[in-house]
Specification:
single chain; mainly beta; nine-stranded antiparallel sheet; eight-stranded antiparallel sheet; about 40% strand
Length: about 280
């Protein structure tokens, strides 16, 4: 664990490479690792990522890779990063998901039917060009396919998702989104939470905490700053739109349109805490 570089306030922007203290202070990370609290924690800095040019199930991750795309460890960052790269061309893409093709990490259990819990996610990422589409966050398992996460139109596939999307129709706008498979239309909860700049890192994250007020059940962050828009308990309890009760894992994906495109992730982390 690194213990330097933090900013304590959820109102002060922090573009450094450290994760957001005000978000992760809600997660008893050390207690979970010590077996003192029930839950799990996950962090990957990509300091030992294999280079891939074909589909692979690595059990820790499953990779889908189109022809003329690759997934490699970055060589320019001493702290580690993973690079999803495509050649120039239409609808070339790749994705990486945790748990192989069948495993999940988190389950958004509705409060009415189970012990309350807390779920958190954050990642630091960038894109080399402002074309095509990008997704990072949670998705259901088994999406290592050509349109498993992102469709060829650069929108989210009709699967269970909650995370951050750069849509092809707005390639410099980063949105906070969620979707329930076969439910209503995907929900863009916060449009343009960030304006993407080519080859410039941004940190995005969210935390669901049952202890929060009903009007603030999920808090969303960008570069250490908490957004003023929240996901309410009423929205979470709407099982037509929100992927409540669905098992999901971490997922990153991109689809290209024209130019050579890099989608780079410095790190991502997630946690689940069971609250008694």
């Amino acid at each position: 664990m690194r213990a330097v570089g933090y900013k304590a306030s959820a109102k002060v922007a922090d573009t450094g490479r450290m994760w957001t203290k005000s978000l992760w202070d809600e997660i008893p990370w050390d207690q979970i690792q010590a077996g003192e609290r029930e839950g799990w924690v996950f962090h990957d800095d990509f300091i030992n990522m294999p280079n891939l040019s074909v589909d692979a199930d690595l059990h820790k991750y499953a990779a889908f890779i189109d022809t003329n795309a690759t997934i490699t460890q970055g060589v320019a960052n001493e702290f580690g990063e993973v690079v999803l790269l495509s050649d120039a061309g239409e609808n070339i893409g790749a994705n990486l998901t945790t748990g192989g093709q069948t495993g999940g990490l988190s389950k958004f259990i509705l409060q009415a039917t189970a012990v309350p819990h807390t779920i958190a996610f954050e990642a630091r990422m960038k894109t080399s060009t402002l074309v095509g589409s990008v997704y990072i966050g949670f998705s259901e398992e088994g999406l290592g396919t050509t349109e498993g996460i992102l469709s060829n139109t650069g929108t989210l596939s009709d699967k269970n998702h909650i995370g951050f999307l750069v849509p092809e129709a707005d390639p410099d706008g980063l949105d906070f989104v969620y979707n329930k498979e076969s439910g209503a239309a995907p929900t863009t909860m916060i449009a343009d939470i960030h304006t993407m700049v080519a080859d410039e890192y941004v940190k995005v994250g969210f935390i669901y905490n049952y202890k929060n007020a009903a009007a603030k059940q999920i808090k969303v962050y960008k570069n250490g700053v908490r957004n003023a828009t929240f996901v309410t308990k009423a929205l979470i309890d709407n099982t037509t739109n929100f992927p409540g009760g669905e098992e999901m894992g971490l997922a990153m994906a991109f689809k290209n349109v024209t130019d050579i495109k890099n989608f780079t992730v410095d790190w991502w982390r997630a946690a689940l805490v069971v609250n008694s």
